[in-house]
Amino acid sequence: MNRREFLRATAVAAGALVGSEFARGATSASQPTTVPLSKKYITCFYQFTPDIVKMMSGENGLPNGEKFLHIYSHSHPGTRVHADTAQAVHDAGKSFKYAIAFDLHKYKGILNSPDEKLKDWCKEFRQTCFDSNADYFAFNEMPTTGAKDIEEQKHVATICRFLHDPGDGHALPGIYYSTEQSVDPDHWKTRNPDFWKALDESCDLIVGEHYHSTDFVFSHKTPEAFADHLFEMAKYLDEGKTPAEHEVARDKYTVLHSSYYGPSEGGWHGPTTKEGEAVARKYLKFCIESTRASKYGKNRIAFGPLASETFDAAIVPILTELLAEDARVWAKRD
Do 315 and 305 form a contact (C-beta atoms < 8 A)? Predict the structure, then answer.
């Protein structure tokens, strides 16, 4: 079963349409903040349920506060409003934010459509975000061919700009997800500065997916060696010539590790229940340490999924414990 099949099998509670300031186009994430993102401790999660958020919050959970940001993004079936999901995330505290995925596969021919059609789709999706009280859109996901196809890059750049602000003055910040082939510099044959400029303008995080098996992760003997692999794309961007490339590399590029735990690797990889919780803990700890071993991963990290048809939530308390400890260490050092 591949990643998209997992997505189709994943469900979360439906939301109810509510009237609020979000429905009028103002989101909490779009408001000014006194702490820049580069100075925050940031976690980002892909696929979850309200129960998972409860497990990861509270007294022993991920910390709340002005310097902490925890973004929970989800690819929902269909295009319904999910205000109850937003409420479940927001109930965890002010540092907890919710993102709804804009899934490319739901829009037939989107990468060959004219700008006006793209704008219509994006405006329709934005209204769903506002009605749901979402804090972010989550662009999902850069096609595997995107790194090699400059026309696809142009369309994706336009989509992200329209999702952020189609001209109505109500900015909605984004989280950008990229498939693993598109975070390999060897696939980028041509630099497209406007593509990275568009992402820098529209998104707070640029997430590079790394769904690896335990064997692959542990084949890198040290966190530093694994970090070299994880942040190849950030280094590539930092070697670019534009301010946007530097900004993305230094303050926005975020590595996503697999947090799947289940009977078999499937499309998500990650540790398996056959390997057991001790291996899962070792794997997660190594992923966190490897991320922190790079100058591009000092304050931000992502994991996914936290929900799927075969997901075993026994890994969630372990991940929460390790991230909470990592956050405490960061807060003392910062």
Answer: no
Amino acid code (one letter) for 58: G
The domains of the chain are located at: 3-333
pLDDT tens across the length of the chain (334 residues): 444 444 434 433 333 333 333 333 444 444 445 799 999 999 999 999 999 999 999 999 999 999 999 999 999 998 889 999 999 999 999 999 999 999 999 999 999 999 999 999 999 999 999 999 999 999 998 888 899 999 999 999 999 999 999 999 899 999 999 988 899 999 998 888 999 999 999 999 999 999 999 999 999 999 999 999 999 999 999 999 999 999 999 999 999 999 999 998 778 999 999 999 999 999 999 999 999 999 999 999 999 999 999 999 999 999 999 999 999 999 998 7
Q: What is the DSSP string of 226-281?
A: HHHHHTHHHHHHHTSSSHHHHHIIIIIEEEEEE---BSS-TTT-S-BTTT-HHHHH
- Architecture of the CATH domain 3-333: Alpha-Beta Barrel (3.20)
**CA distances from residue 285 to 192, 217, 274, 307, 323 in whole angstroms, order as listed:** 35, 11, 19, 20, 9
Note the helical H segments in 25-99: 50-56, 83-90
Show the tokens assigned to 322. 């390790």
Q: Which helix (H) or strand (E) holds 130?
A: helix 115-131
